[in-house]
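hey so i finally got around to running the thing on that chain from the lab meeting. sorry it took forever, my laptop kept dying and i had to restart like 3 times. anyway pasting the input first so we r on the same page abt which one it is
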Amino acid sequence: MPELTAPLLDRLVKVPPFNHLSTSDYADLGTCLEHIHAEPGDVVFHEGAALPGLFIVEHGTIDIFSAQDNVVSHRGPGDIMGERGLLRDGLAMLTAKVSEPADLLILPADQFFHLTRNVPEIGAWFERATPSTSTTDESPYAAGLMAIQVADLMAKDLLTCSATASVRDVAEIMRAHRVSSVLVMQDTALQGIVTVHDLVNKVLAEGLGGDMIVGDVMTANPITIGPEEVGLDAMLIMGERRISHLPVADDAGRIVGMIGRTDLFRQQSATASHMASEIVSAETAGEMARVMRRLPDLLTHLTAAGTRPAAICRRITDLTDVITRRLLVLAEAQLGPAPVPYVWAACGSQGRREQTGVSDQDNCLIIDDQMTQAHEPYFKKLADFVCDGLNETGFVYCPGEMMASNPRWRQPAKVWRKYFADWVSEPDEEAQMLASVMFDLRPISGETSLFDTLQSKTLKMAKENSIFVRHMIGNSLKHTPPLSFFGGLSLIRSGEHKNRVDLKLAGVVPIVDLGRVYALKGAISALNTRERIKIAGEKGVLSAVGARDLLDAYDLIAETRLRHQALQIQAGKAPDNFFDPTQGSELERNHLRDAFMVVKTMQSALGSLF
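ok and heres what got predicted. didnt touch it at all, straight out
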């Protein structure tokens, strides 16, 4: 194998998660990476064959085939292939064949496993790709056509005509609504379907006029599919019958929707991997914003597939991280290299990797102590560029201005050390609030050693200050679960969100606060709330039973919140955190109430100890 060139390595590190490679990891790749070019018809790997390593698509299109030789998905630039087979038994689970000239990188299997074992970010990324037979697999990549029902992919607003309508009228309907098919109905009975393909091949190509009636060109008695079937079933039927549209009929034969190839391909493109690959190559925040318009689709598809809340939030946060890093690259391309080292860090939900469909930005700049006043204009421009870009892509400005664009949160490391020392030694109300947010800091890009030293010293200092710990506990008890005196759900009494529950401030935030206190008491460096609670249970900071109950409560509240947002998106509404309990069944309301009761119990236990 020829010696690996720097440009080849540079191309690899543009693809998540390899952008997490350290300088030493980068050097260790040495001569192991391979580049191959493939032409249409070439087979990259056969189902059941031993995989030489992980495949990364640089250019071109690869079709993925089932054992029945049906195309089940596509892979394009930035996509990764073979990870599930490598992680299972080293054998390819499907067949990959080139449909457009392609360039691929191959990371040998032994190097792939070395990186997953030794680079935490890469290990965590591929851990979620571990094969599972359950539709609740945490992997967002498993939320594909095998996991999503037709009902969640189909168009529900049907366009119909009668068999006696003219071809010209139907063509006008298609143009006005920008669709490629119309159902032909007689009252509520399906007679046929007419598509753009029919108009082109059966009318225009034959030199016929627009006065023809649709009944003469339609496909009569078309095959239908049930709404409970999965997207893969729809794709296989379309492939076998060489059609592009399927009417959706319920058990009573009523037509309830329409699904087309574009709906299936849209689902394939609305994955975090596709979106991340496009963001990495974007040249402006506007281009990234266009990619992020698919975020609602990503959220609804993952939710419909039964993906666990932690995995959904992680995928959304991964996208925010990719955007942030890309904006920093673009900023430095415009402003020039930074005059002194810095690290860009995220806090809040991004820091904890817990972002949802409704998230603002919280971030800061920690700059090397060599910084002088002369360097301030550069870092101001850098911070403004990134914060403005995040806002444009949908992660709006923090209402409390806790952003690097605020000079207070754009300081040398020595100032940050003083910030934390002051907050810990004099924990007034503002200090409690700021410390709560800043204890969730996570480095995103830059010189991470600036952060590592700050974090380790601060955790040690905070844990040893019993007064500060007591204040943090008091702060964690300010947000209480929405329970009435008699144990029922306590709803918002007035205003825009009357008779609803705030699943963020009254549901998720109290658990986040508890997790932060447990991390402080146990000197736990983990930032993610689930990880904090899990480790706290293992270390005896709280009982194993308490940790398990709290994790179950957290998952249920988080799942309810995400499902609520997904339903709002499907209804064409902006997602929020205000849930109407009457939307669910009595059983669901009881489960939600029980989850809030667990949180209240844990808060009471913590408060009684201090």
